[in-house]
From TrEMBL:
GO terms for molecular function: oxidoreductase activity, acting on NAD(P)H. Residues 11-353 form the Enoyl reductase (ER) domain. The keyword S-adenosyl-L-methionine does not apply. Belongs to the zinc-containing alcohol dehydrogenase family. It comes from the Eukaryota. Keywords: Oxidoreductase. This is Zinc binding dehydrogenase. CDD domains: enoyl_reductase_like. It comes from Rasamsonia emersonii (strain ATCC 16479 / CBS 393.64 / IMI 116815). The keyword Metal-binding does not apply.
Amino acid sequence: MATMMEYTVSGKPSIKTTRREVPIPEPQADEVLIQVVATGSNPKDWKASRNHEEGQGINQGDDIAGTVVKVGSNVWEFAPGDRVAAFHRMFTPHGSYAQYAIAPASTTFRLPPNISFEAGATIPLAAMTAALALYQNLKLPLPWNPARTETPILIYGGASAVGAYALQFAKLSGLSPIITVAGAGADFVRSLGAATHIVDYRRGRVVEDILEALGGKKLRYAFDAVSYNRSYANIAEVLSASSGGEESYIDVVDPPSDDTANPDRENWQWPAGIRMTRTFVASAYGAAHKYRTQQEAQEDRDFAYAFYRYMSLLLAEGKLKPHPFEVQPGGLESVANGIQQLFDRKVSAKKLVYRIADTPGLK
């Protein structure tokens, strides 16, 4: 039986990885087996790993970029040798912190020749989180049918990977003005050429600066791409002050469990007139959860299937920029350190990426 090396992640008391030799997995009927060239870390990795004792972790990697090796019996779009990126089914075996990984065919998409594997590893989870939030939850105009009237949007956390992709999609959708909140990553956000206004939260007057940027315009749509440090409270205040009495909408990503600045977040009551949805990217492959019914998750799966393929076109035409990345030394040996950096909030305006071939001692 052919084997490979994989790294499992656990998080007590600090982030650690365990290297082990396991059989190369076989794809199920609707799955693809990919030889991983590069992968990246996400905040979700430390959130999940904190639930596992040392030595009892799982392979947390979800961003796959590599070459198709084998496809399941129902897969007709891909063949061995195809350059692809893919979103692994979270919290299941055969993630991307390994030489080979498994992904649903529906969340696999081609990488055009102008996109490196390292850049491709920044896309699957973060970009789809942004797309689900804007289009499935907030119901904003799609890029191929952009807004015909002025539609302001607030994107909180524009320097994060999710926020940066949301900014690019918002511009492609013809939304305006596009207001974002950032700090040390403001120069990167500016380089995207998507936001019309960048509010620096370090000034300590986020609400006032957002309202000033609006210039009296009604704001009815907001996406909180960070859910940290009372971001939701700032957004709620802005929406209440600027919606003109009309119903307004906010979508938030899953809030981090270590956010001591948000002691009341679980009991937070949104002001009247604000409708909240929450994006959990697992619905991209049809997984229902607390905030999405099975029917809604199936609709998200169908949307993700189409939008991943649309992203291949945007990437090929240069209309979508992969997130900046920093390749970590030592390949998968650096995964624990990378996830720890995310937990310690030492990463801004970049993704941490690992090349599998850089891992010492692999076959």
